[in-house]
Fold this protein.
Amino acid sequence: MNVIHLSAECYPVAKVGGLGDVVAALPKYQQLAGESAIVVLPYYDRKFVQENNFDVILEAEITMGGTILPFQILKESTDKLGFPLHLIRIPGLLDRTEIYSYPDETEQFIAFQLAFLEWLTYFEIRPDIIHCHDHHTGLIPFLLSHSIKYGQFADIPTVLTIHNAQYQGWIGWEKFYYLPEIDPASLGLLEWGDCINPLASAVKCCWAYTAVSPTYLQELSYHANGLESLFAAESTKGFGIINGIDTDIWNPESDPMISVNYNTQNVAERKQENKKLVCKEFGLSISKPLVAFIGRLVGEKGADLLPEAITRVLTELKGELNIVILGSGDGVIEDELAGILESFKKEYNVFIGYNEALSHRIYAGADFLLMPSRVEPCGLNQLYSLKYGTMPIVRSTGGLKDTVIDITVPGGYGICFDEASADDIVTAIKRAVELYKTTDELNLLRTQMMTLDYSWNQSANQYIDLYNSLK
Ligand code: ADP
Ligand code: GLC
C-alpha cells in the first residue's frame, strides 16, 4: 500500500511537540510492517535540511489568488529516517526557519497544500491513502473531492488524524480566492462558524478520522473548541488510536543523549547516576525526590497552575523535594516560573527554552514527571517517562487516562488526579514524596513501568487496518 503522510512537523527536521514525534515514527513503523509510507513536509531552513542531501525531483508552479508561485519538490537522498522524506519549497513562503506563528501562516499552509495537490498530478502511480495530520493539511480532503482541478483524485481515500482540536486553522472568507475553482454547491463543506475552518472541513470530507487516544475521541463530542456537534454528527467515521513511542530513539538502554544507559536490570543504581548529573546541572540535591515538568507552557498543559502549586508544595514540604521545569511558551507563565526562583534556590530550577537533549536527560534523571494537563489528546511525555522508569503524575484526561493507572489500583504504576487545580497538584506531589520513602517499592514499580509496551508496533498496524477498510 502506498501511503502519503502530510504534516507541518516531523522530527528531527522540524518539531515543536508531539506531532513531530508521531509523524517521524508512524511512517517508519508502517515501512517496517511492509507498507510504503512517505512523508511530505514544508521545506524549512533548519539544521537537518542544511546538513543533509536532497534531490530536486520536480519543479512546477501553482496559482494562489492570482499569484503564480513556483515550487520545488525535494527528496532526502538516503531515506535515513526510515522512510522517503519529501519537502515542498516555495521561496518566501516555504523556506522558513520557524514552523508556526508567521503573520501569513494561512498563505503558508494553503500554498503547501496546493503545491502537494499539483505534485499529485505528476504521480505515475496513484497513492492508496492520503493521511493528513491536523488543520495545516485540513483542506486536502475537501479539495480532492470538490475542486474542479483536483476532483479527479476524489477516489483516493483520505484519513485525518486529530492531534489537537484546539487549533483549527480558521481562515476568513476574504481569503477564499486563494483556493482553486470549486463546485459552488459544496461551499458549506468548508465552513464552520462563519469562516473557513480547515479542521472542521477535514472532519466533514475525510473518509475516516482518528483521534490520538480512545478517550480523546470520546471527549471530542463534548470538548472540541466549538466542534463538539460536528464530532458527534460524524462519529461513525471516527476511531481512537493511541500513539506509540519510537523505541530506537526513546530507550534508556541505548539513548546517546543520556550519560549513563540503563535497563530494567540496573535501573535502581544507574538511574541514580543520571539523577546525580541532572541535580548537578540544576544545583539540586540528589537525596530528595526530583519532580520534573517538560512541555509547552500553555493553559492546555496546566502550566499556568505551576507557579502556585510549586510555591505551595515547596513551602508546605520544606526541604523534602526538588522540582525542575523545562519549557517555553506563554511569556507570563515563563516570567512567573522564573520569578519564584529566588524563593526556592536549592529546591527548584527552571530552563526556559526548547532543548531536546536536556529533555532526555531529565526523563532519565527525574523520579517523577508531572503532567497537570487540561487537555491532552494523547501525550507522549508520560510514555517516555514510563520507558525511563520515571513515574508519571498525571491529571486523568485524554490519553493520560488511557495510559497511566494509579498505584492504588492493582497493577498500577502512576499517580493520577482529577482536577486541573493547584490543590490537586499539591496533593498528588505529596503522594509522590511519600512513595519515594519506600525505595524498594518504587524500584519495583520502575521496573514494571519500563516493561510496558507502548511501542508503535500495535498502533501502526491499527492504522494499516483502518486504511485497508477504506480501500
Ligand atoms: P504536545 O505535542 O501537546 O506538546 P506531547 O506530550 O505529545 O505534547 O509531546 C511533547 C513533545 O515535545 C515531547 O517529545 C517532549 O519531550 C517535547 N518537548 C516539549 N517541550 C520541550 C522543551 N521545552 N524542550 C525539549 N522538548 C520538549
Ligand atoms: C498534540 C497533543 C498531544 C499529542 C500530540 C501527538 O500536540 O497535544 O497530546 O500527544 O499531539 O499526537
Summary: The mean pLDDT is 98. Residues 17-19, 22, 163-164, 212, 243, 376-380, 399 surround alpha-D-glucopyranose (ligand 2) (CB under 6 Å). DSSP finds 16 helices and 17 strands in the chain. The chain has two domains: 2-246+456-470, 267-451.
